[in-house]
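Appendix B, record 7
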Amino acid sequence: MSEIDRSLIGSQSELFVVEVEKGAIRKLAEAIGDPNPVYRDADEAMAQGYAGIIAPPTFPVTFFPPEEPEWTRDLDRRRILAGEQRFLYSRPIIAGDVLTCRVIFLGVDDKQGKSGKMELLYQEIVGEGADGNHVFSNTKTTVYKEAVGLLKK
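Structure tokens (predicted):
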């Protein structure tokens, strides 16, 4: 299949900045149905030892670079499925954080599934705090399905 340009493995997106807002944290907590008060109430979060309102662990799924990375720019969106995601934290994401992020193209594997061939695209979003220290890594697998039976536009 090999539609994803493997020569770009190791490439990184341009750096982009995410300003973490408490309203965005609250919206995600509500969307996922998590009532934990540390996602809404600064006093409660501080009582539990945090510097302020913290973000749910999956919050980095809402971070996107301003431009689509080169290695995914030309992919047919109808053939993309979400795969596995993993999160690694050095510290919680806190409302008011200004994070400098980048997306890294880690690799591609070819697989054969019941519905046809697919490529598994591995990427990682890494975020650093204002002090330059690692805050989080979000490693994700994206499934890119073969174009069998799709009408071309």
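Remarks on this record: The radius of gyration is 18 Å. The beta strands are 16-19, 80-89, 98-113, 116-128, 134-145.
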